[in-house]
Amino acid sequence: MAYDASDLPDVSGLTVGIIGGTGDQGRGLAYRFARAGQRVLIGSRSAERAAQSAEEIAALPGVPAGGVTGADNDEVARRSDVVIVAVPWDGHAATVGALAEPLAGKIVIDCVNPLGFDKQGPYALPVPEGSAVQQAAALLPDSRVCAAFNHVSAPLLADPEIDRIDLDVLICTEERELVGIVGALAARIPGMRGIYAGRLRNAHQIEAFTANLIAINRRYKAHAGIRVTDV
Predict the structure, then answer these.
(1) Is 90 domain-assigned?
(2) Which of 10, 58, 131, 140 could form an S-S bond across to 203 if both were Cys, CB 3.0 to 4.6 Å?
(3) 142: burial class by Cβ within 10 Å (0-12, 13-18, 19+)?
(4) 0.70 exceeded by the pTM?
(5) Domain tally, the chain
(6) Which letter does DSSP use for residue 60 in this model?
(7) Is residue 4 part of a domain?
């Protein structure tokens, strides 16, 4: 079955919360979704930091008035329909585990990549559960968990001069319905497609491939992403 954006559901009314919304990846995604007209909530351990980031994003070109606000992680989890986890790997388990109750029944998109860095460059870290998203799924048994947005360049997301970001968002999930919902969110950003890439057990190589992309970007001074052919 070929990719067909016309089959995607309407997600324009969903509120998107971003846990880790004060970091580069979280801020970039918040900006793009807010710019597309999505209602966005920025989450942080500090409500003050979240509010400050929300004000800065709201001041960027193309963001409608009232399109993005900030609050602490617990409040964002409770008020959102879809929650994107974009926290540093070293705080992933603690942050996600603490939000199990407010995230119950919610769609949770994990875009965290467990990476280490040394003199030879980036490399994938082992995860006992198999991947960051599998760790999230284990910590959130009552949530609908998937992996997506792992390979999106934060500088591209944050650049208001860039209108299109031509890449594919690889989606791993146990629920086929989530492919359409997450794919529709990806399609809110011009140039993006959401592509089903298998069950959660297939997410570890997607997360790990980010190390290769970082190496590519450093070598070629680029902001490389993924585009799947023949789909």
Answers:
(1) yes
(2) 131
(3) exposed
(4) yes
(5) 1
(6) S
(7) no
